[in-house]
Amino acid sequence: MSIPQTYTATRVPLRERIALTIVAAMKPVYFLLRHNRTCWRTSQAALSEMSEGTLGKDLSNFLHTNGLQLMPRAEFHDVYHVLFGFGTTMKEETCIQFVPLGNGRRSIPYLVTISISIIFYPENWEDFYKAFCIGRSSNKFHDWDFEPMLGMRTEEVRRRIGNH
Question: Fewer C-beta neighbours within 10 Å, C or N terminus of the chain?
Answer without folding.
Answer: C
